[in-house]
Here is the input.
Amino acid sequence: GNSVTQMEGPVTLSEEAFLTINCTYTATGYPSLFWYVQYPGEGLQLLLKATKADDKGSNKGFEATYRKETTSFHLEKGSVQVSDSAVYFCALRGGGGTSYGKLTFGQGTILTVHP
Amino acid sequence: DAGVTQSPTHLIKTRGQQVTLRCSPKSGHDTVSWYQQALGQGPQFIFQYYEEEERQRGNFPDRFSGHQFPNYSSELNVNALLLGDSALYLCASSLIGGKTDTQYFGPGTRLTVL
Here is the structure.
């Protein structure tokens, strides 16, 4: 079945540091890939997505590139802010005829940014 | 444009009781999915409703059931509550056949089973 693996957390950075959160996946067909962010006490917000190989999703300074050859979708940001502190989830929606189906999530990575 | 809304925000029940959670999808969306998020974990897919029918189901027992109404809103019912059912329940809506079928999430209902 489909699965998503995220790097072990938590991640603690100083403001303006470079961020990378690793995400790898296992899936059949051609999945779509997503990053969601969850702020304390809130639901999930879509951060960015990519629907085919070599696509780059970007939003609010965050970027991730869909790498089919390495089955990865790593999240990056060049300069983090305190307001980026949250939990980040990598997720996939399966291809192969299940395009409208379930999202499979990684376990989440807690990011804390200090001033 | 209203986003996905869920009610209630918080709920406390005791073991063996039954609970109903409600979700209204984002305007223009026709599909609702439900997820369970245990503390410190990623969300787990429960089921998805489209055209008032359950289209896909995750690995959850029959105690978990749902319904979708003609206005696309949805309910999640859980019978015979167990302590392990304590979690944040998230509803997500999407539009099948639209330019994007990205799922948008509501704020969730926090269920505590004592």
Q: What stands out?
A: Chain A has no helices and twelve strands. The radius of gyration of chain A is 14 Å. The mean pLDDT of chain A is 91.
